[in-house]
Amino acid sequence: MRLFTALDLPADVRQSLQRLLERLRPTAQLNWCSVENLHITTKFIGEWPDERLGELMTALGKMPRLGEIRLRLRNVGWFPNERAPRVFWVGIEASASLEALARALDVELGKLGVPRETRPFSPHLTLARIKGTVDLSRLRRTIQQLPSLEFGEFSTDTFHLYRSDLRPTGAVYTRLASFPLV
Length: 182
Hints:
Elements: E1 2-7, H1 11-24, E2 31-32, E3 40-47, H2 53-61, E4 69-79, E5 87-94, H3 96-110, E6 124-129, H4 137-145, E7 150-156, E8 158-167, E9 170-180
Antiparallel strand pairs: 1-3, 1-8, 2-6, 4-5, 4-7, 5-6, 8-9
């Protein structure tokens, strides 16, 4: 099974992002994410054997209690860059406990054989994926006309383990477990 850990978004932030996506989707032919699937990934685990799920859950349950994480969603951007974008995202500003969680997950799950991260942690919400050459001029104009690039603030005291099932219609995420941070 394909797994990752993530933070969930509260309803009011999802509504804000839904309004944003409704405005932006018609402006470019991208592989847009559904609002229901939006999350803040803290660690991509990848393929994991079913028979080792208990071992993984035990490790996640032993994660240090790093405290509540405060998050602010603002601005938009592109990975790897604006000239040759492959991902369109919303940025995340967070308390230091988010990066501490990502680091702790990387270290502890690395002990179980999960590949360690090679890039610095860069919290974001993926709004769309871009394949091939796409005209983004209308999308960029629409972004410039937005009244605000602030999409909400919230705090969380829990992270979650998700299974990702890839289907022709898109990924389906199923929450397997939740783990406290306080």
